[in-house]
């Protein structure tokens, strides 16, 4: 039986117009297991397609059309479809099958969105910014510290679609953790949304802990003996990377507050309790980032003050040595005026005397500056 025939049967479950369009597209495709990216008829963006009933994976139901038909026929369970950086062409059939709003589909494909939560009829669309700490041996003025990506989540009464952008943030381990706790997964698509939010926010805390180690190292270097010679680019680089982290974390507060407090059809009240816990973790991450920002400002001001002090030290040394050199310069200038009658000009010991007096004057000036801390 072709995929098109399957889609015609599913049309009896609702969304007739959209499913007919998908059926027309499916006539040109053969049935393929969506769980295998390399053989997916919708393109290599499909990571996995799994059906869950009572929190347990339904075996042998990796085909998207069969999965949708099963959950809508029985009225139990939901489908979890995972995608990675899909193209417009690859996402068209899926969007029409689940009746996704065009604006949400555009955001999911284009990426580069702020964290947000939007309602489109019975479908919830959430955007999360993922972050990853970039390991480096030594922090420099060009070191990348924080790498960001995105996870878009479509949540309906019987489906969850996750769209991931970026080189990190794989949801495979998270799926395994949820499958190991079927009692939580049995609570429906909202439980998956909570698990993703919790996973993302936990990564925020991990990254902030790692960033703190870099900031501590910069602080130690600034207040070391040669702190005034430190490259200020390292501090500015940390501020830029911290700003990148801040853009991911701070805007997520409002969406999590809505998920934790506002009545939402696809989010049961018992799941909202879990979202409040995630919101507490997010607030902690926000407070850490705000503290880091203030600390980096203080470190930068301290470094600039140290640079000013070091410059003053250099200027005092230069001035002191210029005063020492001024003594022989003055004596040589006087005796280089070529007057015929000058003191001790024709005396046999005149030259040694002048050299001795000059050296003594230079030594006296040097000791004076040394005693005052200028040299």
Describe the structure.
The protein contains twelve helices and seven strands. The protein is of the alpha+beta class. The chain has helices at 3-10, 16-26, 64-74, 88-97, 102-110, 172-179, 182-185, 189-222, 232-249, 253-261, 269-335, 350-371, and strands spanning 46-53, 56-57, 78-84, 116-120, 123-133, 146-155, 159-165. The protein is rod-shaped, with a radius of gyration of 36 Å. It has a seven-stranded mixed beta sheet, sandwiched between helices. Helix 2 packs across helix 4, helix 10 packs antiparallel against helix 11 (269-335) and helix 11 runs antiparallel to helix 12 (350-371). Helices cover 56% and strands 13% of the residues.
List keywords for this structure.
375 residues, disordered N terminus, seven-stranded mixed β-sheet, alpha+beta, single chain
């Amino acid at each position: 039986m072709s995929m098109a025939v399957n889609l015609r049967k599913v049309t009896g479950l609702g969304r007739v117009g959209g499913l007919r369009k998908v059926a027309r597209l499916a006539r040109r495709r053969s049935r393929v297991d969506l769980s295998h990216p390399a053989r997916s008829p919708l393109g290599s963006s499909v990571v996995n397609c799994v059906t869950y009933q009572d929190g347990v994976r339904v075996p042998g139901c990796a085909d998207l059309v069969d999965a949708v038909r099963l959950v809508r026929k029985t009225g139990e369970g939901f489908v979890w479809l995972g995608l990675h950086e899909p193209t417009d062409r690859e996402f068209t059939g899926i969007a029409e099958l689940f009746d996704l709003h065009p604006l949400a589909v555009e955001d999911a494909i284009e990426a580069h969105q702020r964290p947000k939560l939007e309602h489109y009829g019975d479908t919830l669309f959430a955007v999360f910014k993922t972050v990853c700490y970039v390991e480096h041996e030594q922090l420099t003025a060009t070191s990348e510290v924080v790498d960001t990506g995105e996870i878009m989540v479509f949540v309906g009464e019987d489906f969850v679609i996750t769209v991931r952008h970026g080189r990190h943030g794989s949801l495979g381990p998270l799926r395994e953790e949820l499958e190991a706790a079927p009692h939580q997964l049995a609570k429906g698509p909202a439980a998956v949304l909570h698990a993703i939010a919790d996973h993302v926010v936990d990564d925020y805390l991990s990254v902030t802990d790692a960033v703190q180690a870099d900031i501590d190292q910069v602080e130690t270097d600034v207040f070391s003996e040669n702190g005034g010679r430190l490259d200020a680019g390292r501090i500015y680089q940390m501020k830029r990377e911290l700003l990148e982290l801040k853009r991911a974390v701070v805007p997520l507060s409002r969406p999590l507050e809505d998920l934790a407090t506002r009545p939402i059809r696809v989010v049961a009240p018992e799941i909202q309790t879990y979202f409040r816990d995630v919101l507490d973790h997010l607030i902690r991450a926000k407070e850490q980032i705000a503290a880091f920002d203030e600390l980096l400002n203080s470190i930068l001001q301290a470094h600039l003050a140290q640079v000013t002090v070091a410059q003053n030290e250099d200027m005092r040394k230069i001035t002191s040595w210029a005063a020492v050199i001024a003594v022989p310069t003055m004596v040589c200038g006087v005796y280089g005026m070529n007057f015929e009658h000058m003191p001790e000009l024709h005396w046999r010991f005149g030259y040694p005397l002048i050299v001795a007096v000059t050296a003594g004057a230079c030594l006296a000036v040097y000791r004076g500056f040394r005693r005052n801390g200028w040299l």
